[in-house]
Write a structure and sequence with these properties.
109 residues; Udp-n-acetylmuramoylalanyl-d-glutamate--2,6- Diaminopimelate Ligase, Chain: A, domain 1; five-stranded mixed beta sheet; alpha/beta; globular
Length: 109
């Protein structure tokens, strides 16, 4: 499943109009401790978090993640949006909890 298909199936909003890649979503990683994400998230994973700062974009790039989903109504800072747009990392928005979003993802991928 691609990020575009995930957006459609889960009715997610985007923080900015991303240029979506055709990369396949390989799973998801949920966590807010950046060092754990760096160690454990796998290339192509969707990252579920409530962290809204530019560090999320840097970590997503480092690990080759397919996108970031900010859960619980969290919204990215302006700098995070600029960095994500520049680096081509889609930031998606969910009003659901991290758990609920993870369950939804597990049902569609």
């Amino acid at each position: 499943m691609t990020v575009a298909a995930l957006i459609e199936k889960l009715c997610l909003k985007t923080a900015y109009p991303p240029k979506l890649r055709e990369e396949q979503v390989t799973g998801c990683y949920a966590g807010d401790l950046l060092s754990n994400v760096i160690k454990k998230a796998k290339r192509g994973n969707v990252w579920l978090t409530v962290i809204n700062n530019p560090n999320t974009v840097a970590v997503a790039m480092l690990r080759g993640l397919s996108c970031i989903i900010m859960c619980d109504g969290s919204k990215p800072t302006e700098q995070a949006i600029k960095d994500a747009a520049q680096k081509g990392i889609p930031i998606l928005l969910s009003s659901k909890s991290v758990y609920e979003t993870a369950v939804d993802i597990s049902r569609v991928i």
